[in-house]
């Protein structure tokens, strides 16, 4: 077979992905023409198709590489590759190595994941197949040969690996036991997340290192056959945090994040957070957000179903608005319910329309919310559950304050430099070096908003006697965390911008987990805790003592600082009390020292993204206003009432012009007090105001 020459930078032009994950019986009735039309109509320029691993959808010659029993003498994978290439698309071949069939398990028991007794682990969902261990020859040798066979025989640009880590728990296979013992001197830990066991942190580091080595082996194997080809492992919403930075620089041309939708009370802005999270750690790497056409309910697993079309559209659009290129996936090539097709075609069409203007313009923000990396070493909350950060995120979205996420691993002077305000919702674990970076940032004039237990532990989770940033907060610890408490209130005790907007209220709801602190000289205390009093009997429900301990502390020097010694973000996320959201917004606005560079005024729930280049600025407004905003899937998007977009102009700007990129029209611009204002009407799901100006 002859191949067309391509270069290693092909991921930069693969910006709209169709993924088709085949079921074993699909070869018997695969409609290649239908899928070709979907790829063409959606303006997809890249495709990811099931090829091998657990099941081969091509005529493999590798022993124990299970061929689809419905394939006969056909080549469904090859047919789809040919169709995509006919449309000029990039192609990834999907492999899944997390399980094997019984014949492979019998012939190679050393490939299997094992429990603590050494017994192989059967698949939890499909009896008769067996889970694999990533630290055995199955991954290092067998899957390597599968990848090489696909790249050798087909015109593909990459191998995409799903569930490539094998068994997600601790596998006690002989290979894993031996490798861990040889590398660390420990036996494998008996329980996951047992921070009292010294083997656990060693295991976390060892697993990360060995999986990183595995990706490098696979990547080298495919590049050996075709220099432009890459091996792309699927990532969960948090997995990029666990990658070795050197490996990312050398191996990862892009990230593909497997956060396929929302469920339950997950917020509709969660799609955009995927893009922010990736940029907050690796800003120079493109990131794709996988969107399922079906609902995401892990406990029920309706993988062969269809989500409401508006939910699919919104998830895709909010993702690309914040910088994640769109990627949709369909499980099972049989289309029993095609209602997802128009939604994907419409959302992908919007991306194609906006891409020429937005792609060259980087997303910018004046505010950064620190994204914690406490997985495996959590001091409060379940793994991957960060309610404090969720609450601050929700409050900033509601307040329409554009912001970035910044990973705590890269909290340095260089990464802080672009921002005017840093937000620590509950950055419990900060090293001395990270604290020094924040201290220097504030000393240079940066604003800081911090809450709860921020800096109270070092990077290993060991408690400090006082906050690592006590001098910056203007607060010293008196009593450690107390709670959960009930019926807590904080009193407004002085005029200050952070207490604006509460009208005649003398007090508002406080928190549930409180720290006792004292304020240092030179600070202000606009809120104080009201001492505890009973919530029952109702006749006893009254305050006995005057407000005393500080609940909000502010200080103003080179930079403005707000410290809040309770679980403000977590309690806002849990209860969505408006006063908590207002307090967060007030604190950030005051620390910012003025109006944000770009604002959008008007009713409704919107997610904002701001992009800038030397010629102008683009404000993306994603309309999240819908009856199910904080519960369940979106059925409809309610058009926004009139909005006003306001942008600060450079001092040397000579007027400004504005164009609506979705609507396609030019609109009037009013310039008032150094700001350009544009009126928006009739916004449906998304609009982009592109402002340009000439220098005077």
From TrEMBL:
Matches recorded under PANTHER family: GLYCOSYL HYDROLASE DIGH (PTHR43405)
Pfam families reported in the protein's UniProt record: GHL6 (PF14871)
Gene3D superfamilies, A to Z: 3.40.50.880, Glycosidases
InterPro entries in alphabetical order: Class_I_gatase-like (IPR029062), Divisome_Glycosyl_Hydrolase (IPR052177), GH (IPR017853), GHL6 (IPR028212)
Protein name: Family 10 glycosylhydrolase
Organism: Nonomuraea maheshkhaliensis
